[in-house]
Design brief:
Elements lengths: L10 H7 L5 E2 L11 E13 L5 E8 L12 E7 L3 E7 L8 E3 L16 E2 L3 E6 L4 E6 L4 H6 L3 E7 L11 E2 L17 E2 L1 E10 L26 E4 L2 E2 L10 E4 L5 E7 L4 E5 L4 E6 L2 E2 L13 E3 L4 E4 L4 E6 L5 E10 L6 E13 L1
Parallel strand pairs: 1-7, 2-5, 4-10, 13-17, 16-25
Antiparallel strand pairs: 2-3, 5-8, 6-9, 9-10, 11-12, 13-14, 14-15, 17-23, 18-22, 18-24, 19-20, 19-21, 19-23, 24-25
Length: about 350
């Protein structure tokens, strides 16, 4: 037997994959013609909290749009299934990345800095939109801190097909021959859409440096004590009246509710209507013998509670919503004890008339 002696750790390897990951601006490998093009640039700004205090946030602005300097969550990106997507990314404030959460592109285009690189000046991400569904995009440099600082947005891949029913013009996914499910027509067409991103904020974290905790220094990233609770960047004192968190729908038509958890809490969402879970984390729950029997939409009776994990997404199909005001209630619970946080309730609405 031959024994090869080596150090307990390789300083160069630690330098690359530890607190100083590789920074570069390579050309996009195998770059091809695009169908969708967006730009994103890192921005910082102050946000008013429920008690009137201000905290600094970071996010991805669209530099092509005037007045987009304070996007939280960052602007929604929508792509159609099958399209080639390009995003020109310019960090502008140190090195950052964009990770396309749930898309699973090539490593060079996945934005996970410690397995590829962190963008120093600019890079064009490229991937193909393979599966219609609900996703997120977020920074993957010093991930746990930068996600809390607000560097995330919703990414939606829409199907190619549009419903011929003018009352329900959109599908969640492309319907296929053989699709069937109780109470749901093929593909789940809908006429109104509510997108709700729940988040919590620990003000101490928003005083930390860009690289805090990356080099083994203990800055308390294992201690998260949220004081503020929001939906779509709106604090819970205004979520029942703000246009960002109140959706208008037509009674008797179908509604699509997309829920994402950007908090570090165990999120319990109470659904006020009879509905179906039709997608989880970008994957449809469809009933189709030709596609196999591994999944099907899950019925949720009015009053049911849905627990949503960190960075998890659900699509909820509400058939023929009844007239009235419907409250979607999110309760934030401690990630270890599961005890509800003080003031940890945020309520959004869907008003159908």
């Amino acid at each position: 037997m031959v024994t090869i002696n080596r150090p307990m750790f390789d300083p160069q390897e630690f330098d690359t994959f530890g607190c100083h990951p590789f920074e570069n601006d390579p050309s996009t490998p195998d770059r091809i013609a695009r169908q969708v093009y967006v730009e994103r640039q890192v921005s910082s700004w102050n946000v008013n909290m429920k008690d009137g205090s201000q905290l600094q946030f970071w996010g991805f602005k669209d530099p092509t749009i005037s007045g987009s300097d304070s996007p939280w969550p960052s602007k929604i990106i929508r792509v159609k299934q099958g399209q080639i997507f390009h995003c020109m990314f310019k960090p502008s404030k140190g090195a950052h990345t964009i990770h396309w959460h749930g898309i699973e592109p090539t490593p060079m285009n996945d934005g996970v800095g410690h397995t590829s690189f962190e963008v120093k000046s600019s890079y064009t991400y490229q991937w193909c939109a393979h599966q219609a569904g609900t996703y997120l995009y977020h920074c993957h440099k010093n991930t746990v801190l930068h996600f809390e600082m607000g560097m995330y947005g919703v990414l939606i891949i829409d199907p190619v097909t549009k419903s011929p029913d003018t009352n329900n013009p959109n599908y969640l996914y492309d319907p296929l021959p053989g699709d069937s499910a109780p109470g749901i027509t093929a593909g789940a067409p809908y006429s109104a859409e509510s997108i709700l991103v729940f988040d919590d904020v620990d003000p101490r974290w928003h005083t930390l440096d860009h690289n805090a905790g990356m080099c083994g220094d203990d800055v308390g990233l294992d201690k998260f004590n949220p004081k503020y609770f929001l939906i779509n960047g709106v604090h819970n004192g205004r979520t029942q009246t703000d246009a960002k968190t109140v959706t208008k729908a037509t009674a008797g038509w179908n509604v699509m509710l997309r829920i994402a958890n950007a908090s570090y809490s165990r999120l319990h969402v109470t659904l006020p209507f009879n509905c179906y879970i039709v997608e989880v984390d970008g994957r449809p729950l469809r009933t189709n013998p030709a596609k196999g029997w591994f999944s099907s939409p899950k019925y949720m009776a009015a009053g049911s509670k849905l627990e949503v994990g960190v960075a998890q997404r659900y699509a909820i199909w509400v058939p023929k919503i009844a007239a009235g005001s419907h409250s979607i209630t999110g309760n934030f619970h401690h990630w270890i004890t599961n005890n509800k946080h003080a003031d940890g309730t945020a309520i959004a609405k869907i008003n159908a008339a």
